[in-house]
């Protein structure tokens, strides 16, 4: 066997073990009894120690040095690039630190659930402070003497991205988003839902919408979790959702969102499974898939017309008289605390709040002890009303308890990517609306699969989007789409 063959054989085992680790995390969020939390900490830490040792194994360095990149095809050069990147990052982080992070975030996620239920940030803060300390220590190891700590963590989720560049993009987004929100909220609001929707019906409909967006339940499953998420790759990709009796859209659109993540993973070329190229290339690109499924397709006038009939089949007359009114209700702007429930106009404002706060935490400009006050002050300034409970504020997201500092900006970056992809999709599939109106997402999904999903990690994140969309990444298509859509719904001007 050549050095490259040895390298890939070793890497496949590492990727398989990483999927086992992911399954442990899935179980912790869905099925694990709470009394198992302490034992799970040890299980997760033990497996992370094994993975860390494999990702930093000295043989990787020898194999990487022995392989002639020029003799490889595009896919195998990409494999080498991703393995080398992982190896170089891994060897900078001590094994004991990697295990400590895994153990601590496992405990923190369970504690976060309890704190969220109790509305007790003060009780959770010491453990969050420990998570932050460990992640800052990891960032320092990765960044070296002259590197930026936040950029070092951001690179885990969006390789090559820089906090300063994202800040500049977000500064361009904010004024138009704020102006559109002000104009829309000054208009009469569409009808709101006024009845409860039983949980069993929501879950039945969740399966219907997931399958309408191509989710293969032979290789996946839908469960409930406190915070919806997608997990896995290849032939085992699972999603979760949640139900709220008064708000079935929470369940349905969380399901469509997670189906976008799952669809990306299920549609990667099977030849790449259990290799570095066999997963989504970045969280920003992943979010581009979940957001285009959820918003540009799932909240479109055409798809809403089809979904309206499915809602009536399941729940009978629920107070919305016709498909056009239902479309307006689905896309209704309203005040709210929860990022995952936010409308398309205000969603990114929720993300920008988190981005700024976590950069301040990592830089040391903000202490965990002051985080709740900082969150509440910023929320009041941005949205004009006060946070009523920590569960609706600083405790609403799982990310910081899981140590995922640097993850939040990929949500807005994913929206920007989705805007570019949607503009290109509309040009490529001119009869898209007539297809969506009868529940046929196939033409749109086929375009996404062929232009983006099947390639997995073959290209860098930005190159992935630019190859698929045929244009440079820009926030303009997203902003133009939002202006046109909400002008039409609220009668702001000629749509």
TrEMBL record:
UniProt-listed GO biological process terms: proteolysis
GO molecular function per UniProt: metal ion binding; metallocarboxypeptidase activity
Tree of life domain: Bacteria
Enzyme Commission number: 3.4.17.19
Cofactor(s) required, per the database record: Zn(2+)
Annotated keywords: Carboxypeptidase, Hydrolase, Metal-binding, Metalloprotease, Protease, Zinc
PANTHER family named in the record: CARBOXYPEPTIDASE 1 (PTHR34217:SF1), METAL-DEPENDENT CARBOXYPEPTIDASE (PTHR34217)
Listed name of the protein: Metal-dependent carboxypeptidase
Source species: Thetidibacter halocola
Top-level taxonomy: Bacteria, Pseudomonadati, Pseudomonadota, Alphaproteobacteria, Rhodobacterales
